[in-house]
């Protein structure tokens, strides 16, 4: 069986904006439909992905240590971090809300950190290990990325509901800002990674070069 031709062999490139397969053999290299510039690969993909990932890891520390909201009940206020909020909902019997917040705020960012790091390391090492599964892992990271904002939405909804009560009040704290930055930078990290790098082959030195070197040494 003959392998099907690749897009670069046919002079085609997929537009990142509208998805049209465009001809790269003619100038200028712009999409015929939307006019967006065409690139065969995402520019500086690995560098930008590492930069966004490290930035999100830095913001992840204060996002979990700093309080995300302050709850005041009859004049008494208390700050809550993400994990303490999960425990409060669990102890109050709202295990479903506690589970949702834990998955969206703790589990999902952790999975994304591990998955993107795995993709970056294996691509830089030129690994052939589980290419299809790694491609599926990348698509999974893209899908779950948007659900990380769920904790921010929960805080906003709870605050809006409590505002209707005269004896209670909820105010956001700096932790929610850092958590929002974590979500944004992890999404940028996933968007900057080029999954086609998983399938690229590194050029290998031909064997005749080794034979020539051995011959010249004698």
pLDDT below 50 for ≥5 consecutive residues: which ranges?
Answer: 203-218
User: By helix and strand content, what is the structural category?
Assistant: mainly alpha
Can you give the helix content as a percent range? 40-55%
Distance between the termini: 44 Å
The backbone outline, from C-alpha atoms, is elongated
* Largest pleated sheet: 3 strands, antiparallel
Strands in their spatial order, largest beta sheet = 4-3-5
Please state the oligomeric state of the protein chains shown. single chain
Q: Number of DSSP helices?
A: 7
Please compute the radius of gyration using only Cα atoms: 25 Å
Average pLDDT reading: 76
Strand content: 5-15%
The overall strand count is 5
The string of secondary-structure elements, in order, is EEHEEHHHHEHH
Describe the secondary-structure layout:
Blueprint: E1 12-14, E2 21-23, H1 45-65, E3 69-73, E4 76-80, H2 82-91, H3 95-124, H4 131-145, H5 150-162, E5 168-172, H6 174-192, H7 207-217
Antiparallel strand pairs: 1-2, 3-4, 3-5
Helix pairs in contact: 1-3, 1-6, 2-3, 3-4, 3-6, 4-6
């Amino acid at each position: 069986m003959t392998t099907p031709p690749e897009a670069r062999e046919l002079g085609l490139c997929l537009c990142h904006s509208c998805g049209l397969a465009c001809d790269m053999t003619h100038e200028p290299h712009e999409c015929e439909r939307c006019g967006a510039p065409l690139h065969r690969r995402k520019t500086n993909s690995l560098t930008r992905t590492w930069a966004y990932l490290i930035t999100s890891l830095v913001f992840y520390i204060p996002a979990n240590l700093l309080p995300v909201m302050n709850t005041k009940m009859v004049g008494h206020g208390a700050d809550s971090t993400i994990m303490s909020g999960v425990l409060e909902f669990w102890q109050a019997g709202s295990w479903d809300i506690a589970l949702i917040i834990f998955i969206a705020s703790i589990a999902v960012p952790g999975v994304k950190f591990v998955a993107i790091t795995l993709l970056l390391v294996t691509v830089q090492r030129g690994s052939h290990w589980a290419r299809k599964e790694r491609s599926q892992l990348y698509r999974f990271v893209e899908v779950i990325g948007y659900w990380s904002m769920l904790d921010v939405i929960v805080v906003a909804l709870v605050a809006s509901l409590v505002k209707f009560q005269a004896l209670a009040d909820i105010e956001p704290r700096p932790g929610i800002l850092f958590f929002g930055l974590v979500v944004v930078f992890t999404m940028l990290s996933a968007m900057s990674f080029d999954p086609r790098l998983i399938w690229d082959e590194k050029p290998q030195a031909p064997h005749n070069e080794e034979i020539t070197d051995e011959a010249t040494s004698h």
